[in-house]
Design brief:
By secondary structure, the protein is an alpha/beta fold. It is built from 14 helices and 14 strands. The strands form five sheets. Strands 2-3-5-4 form a four-stranded parallel β-sheet, sandwiched between helices. Strand 6 (149-150), helix 6 (158-166) and strand 7 form a beta-alpha-beta unit. Helix 11 (269-283) packs across helix 12 (310-319). Residues 1-23 are annotated as: Disordered. This is Membrane dipeptidase. GO terms for molecular function: metallodipeptidase activity.
């Protein structure tokens, strides 16, 4: 399936109040829910599964994320207002996963991530484990986790995978390669997933074929992510998941991170909440998360234009009867569980398994 990253980042929202059902809540009641949402997120901050900020910043001659930057959707003041505690920074390429420079371009974006974090030490901190995310939060910084990166950046080399992990990459999208296609994972693709488990790199199957997603869920010992997938039952976008895959994801304790984009979820905040309701009900409350997809070129639903707006979404879920436990899992707990699981499984796998030097030419053409 085609990559979801767009070329030119924009700050756009759509949707209108017309056509929404009558709301029985008074304005005072809605304001009280917003206060409650802020209090909840102060204890359980948002773990945002996808940000296109590294690529968006490449277009700017100068920026200061700590002071505030109107040219992008995400800066430190707005993340603090939205109670964002950890942000996954995409290493996706706007031209897609292919191309002769996929590896070099991914390394350049990874260098951009490091440069941006180093230039904003009072607001940002690089993190690669659950413990480092907690440490960043305790120090009052937003944790930045590099990834997802395109699997095409591996250039069919497990050695490149290990180097990318050493440089900080923690999520890899299994799309756009000969070994993770419409027919599923090849033998080499299965070896890639095993090596990812050994390293602690999470598999992202958003936009992957159903066969690839199903085989990855069956094979991976570490929870699988869908960093930008909503419910196909509600909106037939190709990156959204059918119920059978949501059920499988829930059984495997994976994580579906619902994107705040009009294209995938709809034009209003209530549309986004409908998808969150559906994923929770089908996959379970331990398998649903949030994906802002800010600075990726996506158009956002009304009232969700930038990273400061998460409390408004949480207030809508409170209005629908979500419990504090469910909301704490949605915002923070589920991502922390997945990161802890990746750390634990990597330590266990490294005790049992040596680094793989498998070659695609040997496995897939033997």
């Amino acid at each position: 399936m085609a990559d979801l990253q767009h070329d030119i980042p924009t700050t756009t929202e759509v949707g209108a109040d017309e056509g929404l059902p009558d709301d029985p809540f008074t304005q005072d009641a809605l304001d009280a829910l917003l206060v409650q949402a802020h209090a909840l997120l102060a204890e359980h901050p948002v773990a945002d599964g996808y940000s296109g900020l590294p690529w968006a910043l490449r277009h700017l001659p100068w920026y200061d994320l700590e002071l505030g930057e109107a040219a992008v959707d995400t800066d430190v003041p707005r993340m603090r207002e939205g109670h964002v505690g950890v942000l996954f920074w995409s290493l996706h390429l706007p031209e897609g996963p292919g191309g002769d420079r996929a590896t070099a371009a991914t390394l350049e974006l990874l260098d951009q991530v490091r440069s941006v974090v180093e230039a904003h030490p009072d607001g940002l901190r690089l993190a690669g484990t659950a413990g480092e995310v907690i440490d960043a939060r305790n120090r009052g910084r937003v944790a930045v986790v590099p990834g997802p990166a395109h699997a095409g950046a591996l250039d069919d080399s497990l050695g490149v995978l290990r180097i990318l992990h050493t440089l900080g990459v923690r999520v890899l999208s299994l799309v756009g390669t000969a070994w993770a296609g419409e027919r599923g994972l090849s033998r080499f693709g299965e070896e890639v997933v095993r090596e990812m488990n050994r390293l602690g790199v999470l598999a992202d199957v958003s936009g992957a074929s159903a066969a690839t997603a199903e085989r990855t869920l069956a094979l991976s010992k570490t929870p699988v992510l869908c960093t930008r997938s909503a419910a196909r039952e509600l909106r037939p976008h190709p990156a959204n998941l059918p119920d059978r895959l949501l059920v499988a994801l829930g059984e495997a304790k994976g994580l579906c991170m619902v994107p705040l984009t009009a294209e995938q979820t709809g034009p209003t905040i209530r549309d986004v909440a409908d998808h969150l309701d559906h994923v929770r009900d089908v996959a379970g409350p331990e398998c649903v998360g949030l994906s802002g997809t800010y600075d990726s070129g996506a158009v956002h639903p009304r009232d969700l234009a930038d990273a400061s707006r998460y409390p408004h979404l949480i207030a809508e879920l409170l209005r629908r009867g979500w419990s504090e436990t469910e909301l704490s899992l949605l915002a923070w707990g589920n991502v922390q569980r997945v990161l802890r699981s990746a750390d634990f499984m990597a330590r266990a796998a490294q005790d049992r398994r040596e680094a793989s030097n498998a070659k695609r030419a040997e496995l897939d053409h033997s």
